Amino acid sequence: SLMHKYLPKFYHFIDNLNIKNIENLDKKIGIIYRNYQKKPNENEIYRFKNFCKKNKRKFLISNYIELVNKYNLDGFYIPSFNKKKFYMGKKNSKKFILVGSAHNIKELRIKEAQGVQQIILSPLFKSKNSNRPLGLYRYNLLATQTKLQTLALGGVNKNNVKFLKIIKVKGFVSITYFKSVNSKS
Question: CA angle, corner 151, sides to 78 and 68, nearest 5?
Fold first, then answer.
């Protein structure tokens, strides 16, 4: 639907606001700053936001809703452990992106109640961060329990990315996949 045209199909998780690291990434890939140890520096946010705006790239931040509102960012990412009823800061913006993460049906329902438009289900495959993957079958069972767009996270690489075609998935999120693709350019 046209309504969701502004929602990226791919996101890249970053834990620092180094513009160099994302310069060569495809514009269609949204960026999510996710670092629970380090609140981002406000000058860096300002610079990073302007770079993304200039390059028509979506920029979301996890956890710090006040920064999302202050800098009028494209959206907010709600991790699975954040179960607070969420009141959207930018109700006036039709294009505000709200993305959430879930690992099971209970968390999925919480994200729906929080009003997210996209839900990241993880972990799909085995990776160094995920030793108990959902696998394709369980991922699909979860994904079919919601009307929301689902995105896969966890262990996606160039050998298994083709399997995403056979499950109910809109796109995927990665920490390393886009780095490996990026280094060629």
Answer: 30
* Mean pLDDT of the 135-153 span: 94
With residue 174 as reference, give the H or E element that holds it: strand 171-174
Alpha carbons 21 and 104: distance in angstroms, whole number: 32
Span 38-52, pLDDT tens digits: 888 999 999 999 999
* Tokens, residue 93: 């913006």
Residue among 13, 35, 26, 38 at smallest CA distance from 154: 13
Give the DSSP H/E element, type plus range, for residue 151. strand 149-153
Are 58 and 31 a contacting pair, CB within 8 Å?
yes
- How far, in Å, CA of 122 to CA of 33, rounded? 18
